[in-house]
Amino acid sequence: MNKSYKFRLYPNAEQERLIQRTFGCCRFVYNHYLSKRIEAYKNAKTTMSYYTCCKDLTGLKIENPWLKDVDVTALRSSLRNLDDAYQNFFHRIGKGSNPGFPTFKSKKNNRKSYETKNTRNSQDTICLVGKNIKLPKLGLVRCAISRQVEGRILSATISQNPSGRYFASVCCTDIKVQQCELTGATVGIDLGLKDFAITSDYIIYPNHKHLEKSQKKLAKAQRELSRKTIDSANWDKARIKVARRHEQVANQRSDALHKLSTQFVKDYDVICIEDLQVKNMVKNHSLAKSINDASWGEFIRQLAYKCEWQDKILIKVDRFFPSSQLCNICGFKNAGVKDLSVRKWECPQCGAIHDRDINAAKNILHEGMRSLSA
Predict the structure, then answer these.
(1) What span, in angstroms and rounded, lies between the C-alpha atoms of 27 and 48?
(2) Is 25 left (phi over 0), alpha (psi -120 to 50) or beta?
(3) Which residues participate in catalysis according to the annotation?
(4) Residue 95 has what pLDDT?
(5) Fewer Cβ atoms within 10 Å of its own Cβ: the N or the C terminal residue of the chain?
(6) Are residues 315 and 200 in contact, defined by beta-carbon separation less than 8 angstroms?
(7) Element (H, E) at 317
(8) What angle do CA 300, 303, 306 make, to 5 degrees?
(9) Alpha-carbon span 5 to 109, nearest angstrom
(10) What domains are there in the chain, each with its CATH number?
(11) Is 162 exposed, middle or buried (CB count within 10 Å of its CB: 0-12, 13-18, 19+)?
């Protein structure tokens, strides 16, 4: 099994210059061969494969000697990313989600990254040494190692976020995950905006609304940025303040989602949840900000891979299943519950009084267990 560990880097001035130079070289190589592939198709209706580009890269380095100053595996990874972008575009046409044709990378983008790999001849070109990480061309870089890295290191992705901080994401393989004890418990989860998650066990997990709580501070920082002269030194300082506010919100949201998803995987063996189409739901402009702040899609993604790690079962119930409209006792369908303002309702057939969300969670559990047994 593969797993990634992300640590913050603290490069010195010389290492930071080399990282920035590598970002620029990878961007140059990506844009150069994207242009060549476009021209090849226009002139001869042909294309250039990844291996053709790698062979041509040697000549490009002779023409531009400054490309030799950076890690060659990073340049090849940039070519691999370009080839993957082409493959994703042509293979997904007409299949619903189309990522679009590859575009040129901009120098003004404040989110940068490059990938370097362990070479075949030596498995220690990327390794952890004490409180440092060894990287090609950079040498030992001071690193905040917060946990033990297991398995064999395959590659490392060096990135810089908009706030100017550097990170290394180390990808490892041959990892043995410590398995949680089996509990035999099952649960149905209904996701919402008033409360983030409501379970069939009558447990309610609140929606923290991290973005809404930081809205005033974000608005103040954004106003200060709008009053600065674009591309000036003070404008860049104000931009970093805005980026760090957004980064804080993202970190709070990520931390809460990871803790909650891990708790569910530890406590339950079978988890049933609704397969929400978040991309279509955010088209409702009155709810789009709240839905994005809740991050339902990210929560379901985390549940999926953590259940796979722990050999637990995640069942996604069809998004068109009327979980809120059905009585979980007699199965009567009440179409009047489509109105979101109806929080409690009485079943006309059996007389049971239902809380909208808890009833939905129970129906999701029943439907999930039915599909599992089928």
Answers:
(1) 18
(2) alpha
(3) 190, 274, 357
(4) 56
(5) C
(6) no
(7) strand 313-317
(8) 150
(9) 25
(10) 3-173 (no CATH), 186-214+259-373 (3.30.420)
(11) middle
Q: Tens digits of per-residue pLDDT, 81-140?
A: 999 998 888 876 555 567 788 999 999 999 999 999 987 665 678 999 989 999 999 999
Instruction: Identify which of 184, 191, 183 has the alpha carbon closest to the alpha carbon of residue 364.
Output: 191
CA 202 to chain CA mean position, Å: 30
pLDDT tens for 229-277 read: 999 999 999 999 999 999 999 999 999 999 999 999 999 999 999 998 8
Counting every residue written for the chain, the total comes to 374
Residue with tokens 């149905």: 188
Provide the residue type at 182 as one letter. Answer: L
* DSSP H helices in 5-71: 13-44, 50-63
Q: Are 78 and 114 in contact (CB under 8 A)?
A: yes
For residue 240, count other CB atoms closer than 10 A to its CB: 18
Q: Tell me the C-alpha distance between 119 and 89, whole Å.
A: 30
Torsion, Cα 96 101 106 108, to 10 degrees, reads -20
Break the chain down into helix, strand, coil percent, rounded to 5: 45, 20, 35
